[in-house]
Amino acid sequence: MLRLLSRIPPLVLFLAVGALLFALDSWRDRYGYKAQHIEVAAAKIDRLERSLKKRYGRQPSRDELNAELKAYIDEELLYREALKLGLHQSDEIVRRRLAQTMAFIIEGKADLETPEDNPLRAFYDKQKTGSKVTARVDFRQLFFNSDRRKGRAEQDATKALEKLKLGEVAQAAIGDAFILGQNFRGYSEAKLVETFGREFADAIAETGPNQWAGPFSSMYGSHLVLIEGRTQVKAPGFEKQRAQLINAWRIQRRREIREQALDQLRQEYDIDYPLERLQKMDQL
Asked: Which CATH architecture has domain 133-234?
């Protein structure tokens, strides 16, 4: 290769290299690949240091902090490149995660509210049943992570359920690690809603005992569930469950705030979709 380059006249080689550099610079300009500025504030470095200290249980070394800082910068670089490629628009998982984050921000307003006694008592009276008895459920779950499985969580859970019912696979070999574990004891409806979401809680209420069922959706992904027992517990009075009532009230307020925000957004956007495509369903 060096011999070949040595035979090329210096002027020609100089012009060729110049043309190549010009073309590369033009390409970078055209597609927005210009030098960009990334600034990491001192406050961010402080947060990285605190995170490392919590992780290691000691003060991190300078090398450890440098490595963490480099990882953060690398993540920022990849994040910006992903935005350039429009992955936040074309990738379903990324779109879903962004939508969930926006929903959490909107719903978070409910956590700043504290209900007065009268509205809270009205909420309590509305939630009470005539028997003043509430159910608690013990269950086991197998988790299928929607992010890790890239949209196949429900499909994988359905296949796993069939294998479980046929005895073709052991429970320990199924599903993904779940941060809250597999076994849950004494969960009330309010606790189920708070932990997994309303859809999951409703599904649990309709599921019979001693057999695997699902898949059921939660805010985390898909689940297979085995109901191991139900107990009836006398509901405590208003004062004894004030804290739980406030949590349940806030869960309801999150739903209300989210729906109000979405109603407002629907008014601000022009939304077009082929209505005739839906009308065809009525003819089937």
From this structure: Roll (3.10)
Q: Kindly report, residue by residue over 229-275, the tens digit of the pLDDT.
A: 998 877 666 777 777 788 888 888 888 898 898 888 888 888 776 77
Task: Check pLDDT > 50 for residue 49.
Answer: yes
Q: Are strands 133-145 and 212-217 parallel, antiparallel or unpaired?
A: unpaired
Q: Where are the domains of the chain?
A: 1-32, 61-90, 101-129+237-264, 133-234
Selection from 45, 26, 23, 43 nearest residue 34 by Cα: 26
Q: State whether residue 150 is helix, strand or coil.
A: coil
Q: Are 144 and 215 in contact (CB under 8 A)?
A: yes
Rg from Cα positions in the chain? 28
One-character DSSP codes across 78-100: HHHHHHHTTHHHH-HHHHHHHHH
Residue 22 has pLDDT above 90, yes or no: no
Burial class (CB in 10 A: 0-12, 13-18, 19+), 182: middle
Query: d(Cα 197, Cα 195) in Å, to the nearest integer?
Result: 6
